[in-house]
Amino acid sequence: MKIGLVTARPGHPLLAGAAAALTPRHEILWLDPERGGAPDGEGPPADVYLLKARTPAALALARWLEERGAPVLNTASATELCQDRVAMAELARGAGLPFAATEAFPSLARLASGPAPGYPLVVKSRHSRRRDLVTRVEGAEALRALLPVWRDEPVVAQPFTANSGWDHKLWVIGGRVFAALRRSELAHDGVREAAAAGDDAARSRAARGAPLALEELPPGWAALALRAGEVFALDVYGVDLIDAGGGAPEIVDVNAFPGARGQAGAPEALAALALRAAAEGAAGPRAWRRPGTEDGAVRCAPRA
Fold it and tell me: Domain limits at 133?
């Protein structure tokens, strides 16, 4: 099999691990979308492509491949949807998922100049990307303090839900669920300020945590992550959850093709997913829609 990896970062641990698991029996093709990574010829040379990059160039390349009949995981449309926090919230809430209430504003300035919202408030860039705005504000003064940097930024606002200060990070790769407990970037002032300033190092420190056994999750949370994949038509994705009280989950984010760093078995799960998709000639979360278990991990069983 030939497996194409669409990324500008071939050294990423998840991709590097998957590539190592696939070789030497299978051929790996690295495509950097930022350097004109479209294959030569009219047809795609790989049996399946893994879309790790999410830039406009990467999405354009993924669409080019899809138009020529290549399976792409995740699809360009599913990946793009997860970058728009308004579309994400509308789809999730419309499907009955417990997603945080989300209101859109054309700019941070419009939010700051309008009727006073309830505080504390979580403010995020509407469009998810590296160094975007993700912060908690306690009042109007803190909101106005963001204006010098973020005045024209389209944003969404979400009521802050009191919680333990820890995020449950769930990752799903081809129906297999992985989990970790990580300190929320909204948990304390230092991290909030770093997030508002786009400080990647501080955000990385905030993201450190420990892998979490699935049996340590509140009941139904792993199944909820699988359901999110069905709703968003994703094969490789992450779901960020907080405990809204008494074990009731609230989804605060869904992201396409996250890094899943430090998760034992994640690269192997990605390699297995790529081979299944390549063998079938098409892929999608509906192909693994019925939940089951294997080796202690919640999975979705293949459709008959």
Answer: 101-159
pTM for this predicted structure:
0.83
Over the stretch 250-299, which tens digit does the pLDDT of each residue have?
A: 999 999 999 888 899 999 999 999 999 998 874 444 333 323 333 333 33
Tell me, yes or no, whether 71 lies in a domain. yes
With 0-12 / 13-18 / 19 or more C-beta atoms within 10 angstroms meaning exposed / middle / buried, residue 84 is: middle
- For residues 121 and 137, is the Cβ–Cβ distance under 8 A? yes
119 and 148: one domain?
yes
Token couple for 229? 């994949």
Q: How would you classify the pairing of strands 48-51 and 2-6? A: parallel
In a domain, 115, yes or no: yes
Residue partners of 59: CB distance under 8 A and separation at least 6? 76, 79, 80
**Beta strand 249-256 pairing with 236-243:** antiparallel
Regarding whether 108 and 62 lie in a shared domain, the answer is no
Q: Of 16, 304, 297, give the one whose Cα is nearest residue 174.
A: 297
In a domain, 185, yes or no: no
**Eight-state DSSP code of residue 99:** B
Domain count of the fold of the chain: 2
The string of pLDDT tens digits covering residues 101-113 is: 999 999 999 999 9
